[in-house]
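Friendly challenge for the regulars: who can give me the structure tokens for this chain first? No prize, just bragging rights.
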Amino acid sequence: MKKNSKEAIVEAAISLFTTKGYAGTSMRDIAEKSNVNISTISYYFQNKHGLLEHCFTTFFEQYMAKVEVGYTFIDQGASLCLKRISSDLLHFLCENILLSSFIFREMSLDSQVVREIMSTYYAKEKFYLQRILEKGMERKEIRPQSIAFIIVQLKSFWMMPFLNAPYLREVLYIFPNEHFFVKKYAQEVNKWIDDVLCQKVAAPLSIN
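First reply, four minutes later:
Bragging rights claimed.
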């Protein structure tokens, strides 16, 4: 199906932002790559900053939707809940690898846009993750640990392959855009959840 002008602009912007950086990309670059006039970009997004905000909002609305769906499994256990969120997020990030790489790179910078994201989407994500972990500890499913540090580790699992995709491809020969990677990596994250976060249930003693 032929892309409309708005889709073409967003796709071109994501590609250029990823390869040239936001600051290194001009409106003219985006117009040329998307085969539209600069006035068309201005019509949809006003300016380059408006286009940047659109990319962030589109990404985080979908990102948070995955977290919220996973949270609905909380009554089935914290472990299942975290595994569902991890799996859904990793598939989403894989399917949108260019956008994911760009967004995570921009999130490492200190800017007004980043601060706004952290005060809205990331604050909401923290609420859900903290609630899951607290519930897991209350039920003695999750062993007592620093919740803040668990969140740091979880987010490191989710972000690192997409923030450092060239390293994975060129040094480790792992390709984070492939579905095989997501399946295997999700299994490794699940193993970490089971082995590090969850309480070990002692096997019952046998009576002779």
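The radius of gyration is 20 Å. The first helix runs from residue 5 to 20. Your move, everyone else.
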